[in-house]
Amino acid sequence: MQVISFREPTLYRAKFILPLKEPLIEDGGIILAQGEVIRVGRWRELKKVFSGRRYDLGEVIVLPALVNVHTHLELSALKWRLIPSGSFVNWVRSLIRQRSEVSVEQTQKAAYKALQDMWKEGIGLVGEVGNTGITIGILHDGPMQAVFFREIIDFKGTSSLKDFLQHQHSSTKLLFSLAPHAPYTVSPLLLQAIKIWTKRYHLPFSIHVAESPEEVVFLQEGKGPLRLLLEERKQWNPRFRVPRLSPIGYLKHLGVLDRDTICVHTVHVSQNDLETLAEAQARPCLCPRSNTYLGVGLPPLDKMLDLGLKPCIGTDSLASNDKLSIFAEMETLHRFFPQIAPQILVKMATLWGAEALKRPQMGHLVPKAKAEILAVPVAAPKVDPYEQLVCMAPKNVIRIYG
C-alpha cells in the first residue's frame, strides 16, 4: 500500500479520472488542497492555470475511496469458525454460540486487523453495525470515516432508547446512529421509536431485511425456525400480531421506509416490494458474497435498477465472508449480472454508498469533495477503466490524501 500526500496544494495527473458525478476524464488532472478537491479537469488545461506542485501518477485510474455500507467488525474474530449448514437459522445459532466463546481481547484484535485490511482494500468510509460498542474506539482512532450503528435486538420491546445511547460519540470523523437488527428481532413499537429518533437527528437508519426464506415465513405465518429461535432465546412476545406481510411490506406498514432507510440484503423481495422501495426512495444495501456463502440467494439487482433504485454495497462480516473487500463484492455482482454496466457497479461502491450513509462530501470527485482518493494501476492498454475495476481486484492500491 502506497500513500501519497502533500501539505501544499498539488496538481495530480492520471491516465483516467472517474469523478462519478461527471463523465470519465482521460489524461486528467485533479487539484487537491487542505483535504479537499479543488478542481478536476483535463491535464493540459489545468496545468496552464496552476502554478504549484505537480505530480504525475502515471498510467492509473483515479477514483474516490470505496464505501462499505454494512459490516460487523466486532464479529471479525469468527472468521473460519462458522460453516454454512443449509439453514440460515442454524447458522445464527452457531454464530451466537461461537461468539460467546470469544474474549474481548480477541474481538478487539480481530476488529482492528479487519479495519486495517479494509483500508488496504481502498475503503474510505464504513458503516459498522455493533451491539456492544466495542469497535467505537477502534473506529475513532482508525484510518477512515465511519458511521457506527448501535444495533438493537429486543423483540419483547422492553428496552428504552436511552439504554443504547451511552456510547454516543459523534464527531466529524465518526457518526453515531441506532439500528434495529431485523423485523423479527425488534418489536414493532421499538422499531418505530428508533426510526423516529434517527429521523429527528437526520441520521441514516439501517436494518437487515428480506435476507432469508425463514424471515418471509415468520412475517407471513408467525411460525417456523425464527419463531423457535425467539422462544429458545426467551425473546418471543406473545402480544406480537403476525402482520401477514412481506418483510418490505411490514416495514412500509410500520412507516419506517424513506430515503434515509438502508435495507440490508433485500434478497427475498417481489416486484411489489421493489416498487414499494422505489416509491419510498429507500436504499437497498447488497452483500452478495455473504448471501452466496449462506445460500440464501441473490438480490434482484437488475430489477432494482430498472425501477430507479440506487443500491449500495456492503460486505457483511467475516462470520459470513472471507474478506471485507468492496472490489470483491463488485466482481461478484459483475459475474452474476454481466448485463449491468460496470459504471453502475462502481457508483454503487462509491457515490451511492456515501449517499446512503449521509456523507455528501465522499464517494465522488468534484470541488469541495473530501480528498480521500484511490489510484489503481491500469491493467492493459485501451482498457475500459470501469470494466477493469469490477472484473479484478487490484493487487496494488495507492491512497492519495490532499
| Radius of gyration computed on alpha carbons | 21 Å
* Sheet of most strands: 8 strands, mixed
Number of domains: 2
Mean pLDDT: 96
- Top CATH class of the largest domain: Alpha Beta
Query: Which structural class should the secondary elements be placed in?
Result: alpha/beta
CATH architecture of the largest domain: Alpha-Beta Barrel
The total count of helices amounts to: 15
CATH superfamily of the largest domain: Metal-dependent hydrolases
- The helicity comes to 25-40%
Number of DSSP strand runs: 16
Report on this model:
- With 402 residues, the protein is an alpha/beta fold.
- The chain has 15 helices and 16 strands.
- It has helices at residues 43-49, 88-99, 104-120, 136-141, 188-200, 213-221, 225-232, 247-254, 271-280, 288-294, 301-306, 326-336, 342-349, 351-356, 385-391, and strands at 2-5, 10-17, 25-33, 36-42, 53-56, 60-64, 66-71, 123-130, 145-152, 174-180, 205-209, 261-265, 283-286, 312-313, 372-377, 398-401.
- Helix 12 (326-336) runs antiparallel to helix 13 (342-349) and helix 13 (342-349) packs across helix 15 (385-391).
- The two termini are 17 Å apart.
